[in-house]
Amino acid sequence: MRQFQETPTSLLTQCRNNLPEGWEKLRVLYGRLILYWCRQANISTEDQYDVYQEVMLSLVKGIHSFRKENPDDKFRKWLRTVTNSRIADFYRQHANDPRYLESLSRLTLENEEETDPAARIEENNILFQQLTELLKVHFSPQTIEVFRRMNQRGATSEEVARELGMTATAVRAAKKRVFDQIKKQFGELL
User: Fold this and answer.
1) How many CB atoms are closer than 10 A to CB 95?
2) pTM score > 0.70 for this model?
3) CATH number of the CATH domain containing 149
4) CA distance to 8, 10, 84, 189, per residue, from 186 (Å)
5) 18 and 107 inside one domain
6) For the domain that residue 61 is a member of, what is the CATH number?
7) What is the pLDDT of residues 4-42, one digit of tens each?
């Protein structure tokens, strides 16, 4: 008889243990970001989902190869590398398509440079929206709204308290609960 084991709370652990809920959370959290990177690489809308599927297949096969051995090892950076590899594969497969003639060389150049600050902000906004969606099952709408206002808008606890009819202490406590949950579930992936 199989013994019951506690479900791992870390998203990375869930994926490495091949738990469907982990892969679903990863898809929700990073799916839009992968598609954003495809759009940035000028992949046509109809082809973006093919590249997305290849990225997800690569993740399933290679999730165990991601290691956070030093502070600069970030899952998003690793995922970007995987995505760019699948985009490069796509370009090579479509080398005769005039839409993609210069794209592979541009992609290689972009890999060598830091991400454009405006693109980085957009990436953060996409992740923030998706993270908020995933957290809705754990918190009340008011707590999610506190989190959104303080982090997306940069509002102070006093401003949010006034706007939502709460105390500043309650606002800070709500924000801390959300951050604790983020760290618990997604820490090594953000």
Assistant:
1) 9
2) yes
3) 1.10.10
4) 12, 6, 23, 5
5) yes
6) 1.10.1740.10
7) 334 445 888 999 999 999 999 999 999 999 999 999 998
